[in-house]
Amino acid sequence: MRRIFLAIGGTVAGLVVLLGFKSHGGPALAGVAAGTANSKPYGQASAAASGAAGGSSGAGSSSGVISTAGGGRLITGDVANTAYGPVQIQVLLKQNKITKVTVLEQPQSTENDIRIGDFAFPKLIQETLTAQSDRIDSVSGATYTSGGYIKSLQSVLDNGA
Amino acid sequence: MGTVFSFDVPADLAATALPGVLRWLHWVDATFSTYREDSDVSRYGRGEVALADCAPELGEVLALCAGMRAVSGGYFTTRPGGAFDPSGLVKGWAIEHAAAMLRDAGSRNHSVNGGGDVQCVGEAASGRPWRIGIAHPLRPGTLATVVTGRDIAVATSGTGERGNHIINPHTGKPAIALAGITLVGEHLTTIDAWATAAFAMGDGAREWTESLLDCEAFAVTRGGDTWQTSGFQAFAA
Predict the structure, then answer these.
(1) CA distance linking residue B126 with residue A34, whole number of Å
(2) Are A6 and B4 in contact (CB < 8 Å)?
(3) In this complex, which of A3, A7, A49 lies closest to B8 when CB atoms are compared?
(4) What is the domain range of residue A74?
(5) What is the mean pLDDT of chain B?
(6) Which of A110, A160, B127, B174 is the most buried if burial means most Cβ atoms within 10 Å?
(7) Does the beta-carbon distance from B3 to A146 stay under 8 Å?
(8) Domain count, chain A
(9) What are the residues whose beta carbons fall under 8 Å from the beta carbon of A82, sequence distance 6 or more?
(10) Beta B110-114 vs B117-121: how paired, if at all?
């Protein structure tokens, strides 16, 4: 299976951020495609799968996989240029389980973005890690808005499934 | 705030089947969003257009809403705060349709999660049913329970991330007896609308959900206690 998530609607009309992850056969952070409802973002899906993000801001770390001293793997995704600004995520895996999620770069340019950054990351990343330990495919809750959910990386649950 | 969708789809269908689904979800947002002034729902709600001038799907949604209202004794409503807002049904309906589109595209096993409401088709992997965690409404970062099954729909209703309240349409006041309630069944359109109605009912939800066929419920009360319908164990992981 491939797990993909995106956000639709919101205060910036038509924001779409498409992140793709391989669900089985090894984790990989695919590239990120971004666009608006007026553009044609879905044609970028295959570009996203191959890791071609639409132009780097230059400020993020290089994407890729490195092995850590503790026997883990640090996977850094591509910088994604979303309508809110650049987003880059990094995941630390130990024995194929996510032990840490870091946001290397997140939008800071509008009040809405700051709310995403300050409010949503810690709570929902913890929820992701908890759910992962129970080998969960998906999470149902009344709490997921686009800002929090998309940054919670719920889509990386597959690594533990 | 926007809705986030998460899909589990067979890898070989991801590139071909998803674009159509994404177009559908964007169209639903453009047509039904109460946050868009120019959506059919907003214009119809303001009385600017007749139903006949709107997308035919609005008529379909209104008919479904009328059915939900009847079954729930009016606890499901298209006027939760006074203004016309069919969102309590539209989200589940849009997700269930998205899952049907993936099936039409050839997938037998997939799941679509929209803002925490999930429609699963088939199974998660060969021989393994889907496992859906229910976020604990009072203890962020933990799960209240896990449900499992094939071809299941799971919808949770409760206080939103920003404390948005669901109003009891009969009293006009926020429903506060429950912290969250999750309904499990087969078709998300119905399950999602019933979850919203059940939350608005508060303590009355237990008897009502027990009476519903094709549906089981699990709830967390405001004080942190839990209850479940007598058939819920069939879905417990």
Answers:
(1) 33
(2) yes
(3) A3
(4) 2-160
(5) 91
(6) A160
(7) yes
(8) 1
(9) A15, A17, A32, A34, A107
(10) antiparallel
Model pTM greater than 0.80? no
Residue of A nearest to B2 (CA): A10
Percent of chain B with pLDDT over 70: 95
Domains of chain B, earliest start first: 5-235 (3.10.520.10)
3-state secondary structure of B70: helix
Task: Please give the sequence-ordered ranges of beta strands (E in DSSP) within chain B, or none if there are none.
Answer: 3-9, 110-114, 117-121, 130-135, 143-149, 153-158, 178-185, 216-221, 226-228
Six-digit token string for B154: 């799971």
The answer to whether the CB of A46 falls within 8 A of the CB of A56 is no
CB-nearest to A138 from B6, B15, B155 is: B6
What are A23-75's pLDDT values in tens digits?
332 233 332 223 322 222 222 222 232 233 333 333 446 666 778 888 887 77
What is the Cα–Cα distance from B22 to A94, expressed in whole angstroms? 34
Q: Which tokens hold the place of A45?
A: 């899906």
Percent of chain B at pLDDT > 90 equals: 70
